[in-house]
Design goal:
Number of strands: 9
Pfam family, one: adh_short
CATH class: Alpha Beta
Helix content: 40-55%
Shape: globular
Structural class: alpha/beta
CATH superfamily: NAD(P)-binding Rossmann-like Domain
Strand content: 15-25%
Largest sheet: 7 strands, parallel
Order of helices and strands: EHEHEHEEHEHEEHHEHH
CATH architecture: 3-Layer(aba) Sandwich
Number of helices: 9
Radius of gyration: 20 Å
Protein name: SDR family NAD(P)-dependent oxidoreductase
Family: Belongs to the short-chain dehydrogenases/reductases (SDR) family.
Keywords: Oxidoreductase
GO molecular function: oxidoreductase activity
Length: 277
């Protein structure tokens, strides 16, 4: 039996991963700002589900949630860092307050809960950390710069952990979903910058329009994604990152091709920066 600790478990990917893990007979610590929503969504899980109140920005709640997990199940096998928010607006339109707020959740919140769980995994010499990034953690688009910056940070942290934790028997992987049919584009998860500059109408403005028009019409199936993520607990051959959905796979492939072309074009300039001889 695998013990999962899932953040942001009251909806979206978090709720679907919780359902999938429970359906396989595993136990889940489902953390959310409103744990009642988890219990209402999954009323028949009995003792295998522990719903805990946890805001990833509250250190005391993080400590209490991890202590409750250990007290109930004795250990945590898999940490799923799923809690996160989105923000749409050009870089110039984004205020310090707005970008700090999204970094607090997507990056510093992830760091806080990871630091709280890793000592328990290290003591047992086993574990898996699944970091929900985004295709936006590898490819940045107009209007999504601040959000992508948080996910680029998640990618860097996850990649470093992959190599730091491997000698300790712990695995780490970044998951890069494309657009999935969750409530991520709802106002409860996605915000728009307060400041709007008309010069960005065709870029950041188009991103705002896409977010509004695409809500609940995204191509990705969150139930299928949850099955893939839960399957990872039994895989030893994990890469640094995994794309989910055709959109994510194709966008990453296109960026890799662009980067390869740029490297070849600028090869001489790049190599000329070293000392001679």
């Amino acid at each position: 039996m695998t013990v999962w600790f899932i953040t942001g478990a009251s909806r979206g990917f978090g709720l679907e991963i919780t359902r999938e893990a429970l359906s396989r007979g595993d136990s889940v610590v489902a953390s959310a700002r409103n744990p009642r929503a988890v219990l209402d969504a999954i009323p028949d899980a009995a003792d295998r589900l522990l719903a805990v109140a946890m805001d990833v920005g509250d250190p005391a709640q993080i400590t209490a949630a991890v202590e409750a997990a250990i007290a109930r199940f004795g250990h945590v096998d898999v940490l799923v860092n799923n809690a996160g928010r989105g923000l749409v607006g050009s870089v110039e339109e984004t205020s310090d307050e707005e970008i700090r707020a999204i970094f607090d959740v997507n990056v510093f919140g992830l760091l806080a809960i990871t630091r709280a769980v890793l000592p328990h995994m290290r003591s047992r010499g086993t574990g898996l950390v699944v970091n929900l990034s985004s295709v936006g953690g590898f490819v940045a688009w107009p209007g999504w710069g601040a959000y992508a910056a948080t996910k680029f940070a998640v990618e860097a942290l996850s990649e470093a952990m992959t190599h730091e934790l491997a000698p300790l028997g712990i695995r780490s992987v970044a998951i890069e979903p494309g657009p999935f049919r969750t409530n991520f584009l709802d106002g409860s998860s996605l915000g728009f910058t307060h400041h709007v500059i008309e010069d960005y109408a065709s870029t950041a403005g188009a991103a705002r329009t896409w977010a509004t028009d695409s809500n609940y019409g995204q191509q990705g199936d969150p139930v299928k994604a949850a099955k893939i993520i839960v399957d990872l607990a039994d895989r030893e051959d994990l890469p640094e990152r995994i794309q989910l959905g055709a959109n994510a796979f194709e966008d990453v492939a296109a960026k890799l091709a662009r980067t390869a072309r740029d490297q070849e074009t600028w090869r001489t300039v790049s190599l000329s920066a070293d000392f001679d001889g």
